[in-house]
Amino acid sequence: MLALLFAAFALVPCLADPYAAGEKIAAFSAKDQHKKDFTLDTKGTRFLLVSHDMDTGKAANAVLTTLGAHYLPGKKAVYMANIHGMPGVGRMFALPKMKKYAHRIILGDDAALIAKFPEQQGKVTVLKLSGGKISSIKYWNPASEGIDAYLK
C-alpha cells in the first residue's frame, strides 16, 4: 500500500498544468546535442523555444541552421527539442544528426520537464521571459514562418 501511495505522488509532477503567462519559470538542467551540461539561466534568458515533436523540430532546425550559431545567443534565446519517448533506434540516427547543427539544441529527455511547456500541434512553443517570469507564450510554425517576429 505504501509503495502504491509513493508511486501516485511520483506522478504528480507529470500531471501539473503547463506554464501560463505570469508564472515564474523554474530553472532546469539538461544536456545539449554535444553532451554538454546546460542549466537554464532564468534571469538572463529572454526566450525559450520548445519543439514537441520530430517533424516540427526538423523544420525548426532547418530555419535555425540558416541563421547560424550566433543567432539564438544573440537574442538571449534557448532552443530545446523534446526527445523524451524517442525510441533507442530513433536516437541512434537522430542524435548524431543533431550534432551537425551549428546552433545549440537542449535535449528535453524528461517527461515531467516537457509536460511543463504548453504546446500546439506542429508549432514551436516560444516563451518570452522577463526577470524569470513568463511574459508571453506564442506558437511559431517553422514550416511556414520566420522566427524574427517571435523574438522581439
Write the layout of secondary structure elements.
Blueprint: H1 2-15, E1 29-32, E2 37-39, E3 47-51, H2 54-67, H3 71-74, E4 77-82, H4 88-98, E5 106-108, H5 111-115, E6 124-130, E7 133-140
Signal peptide: 1-16
Protein name: FAD/FMN-containing dehydrogenase
Keywords: Signal
CATH architecture: 3-Layer(aba) Sandwich
pLDDT < 50 runs, ≥5 residues:
2-14
Radius of gyration: 16 Å
Give the helix proportion (percent range).
25-40%
Please give the largest β-sheet.
7 strands, mixed
The count of DSSP E runs of length 2 or more, i.e. the number of strands, is 7
The ordered string of helix (H) and strand (E) elements is HEEEHHEHEHEE
Q: Between the first and last Cα atoms, what is the distance in angstroms? A: 52 Å
**Which class do the helix and strand fractions yield?**
alpha/beta
Question: In the CATH hierarchy, what is the class?
Answer: Alpha Beta
| Shape annotation | globular
Under CATH, the homologous superfamily reads: Glutaredoxin
**Assembly context of the chains:** single chain
Q: Give the domain tally.
A: 1
The neighbouring-strand order within the major sheet is 2-1-5-4-3-6-7
Put simply, the count of helices is: 5
What is the CATH topology? Glutaredoxin
Please, what is the average pLDDT?
89
Strand content: 15-25%
Short description:
With 152 residues, this protein is an alpha/beta fold. The protein has a single domain (2-150), classed as Glutaredoxin.
What does this protein look like?
Strands 2-1-5-4-3-6-7 form a seven-stranded mixed β-sheet. The chain is built from five helices and seven strands; from the N terminus they run H-E-E-E-H-H-E-H-E-H-E-E. With about 150 residues, it is an alpha/beta fold. It has helices at about 1-15, 55-65, 70-75, 90-100, 110-115; strands at about 30, 35-40, 45-50, 75-80, 105-110, 125-130, 135-140. It has one domain: Glutaredoxin (3-Layer(aba) Sandwich), CATH 3.40.30.10. It is globular, with a radius of gyration of 16 Å. A hairpin with a 2-residue loop joins strand 6 (about 125-130) and strand 7.
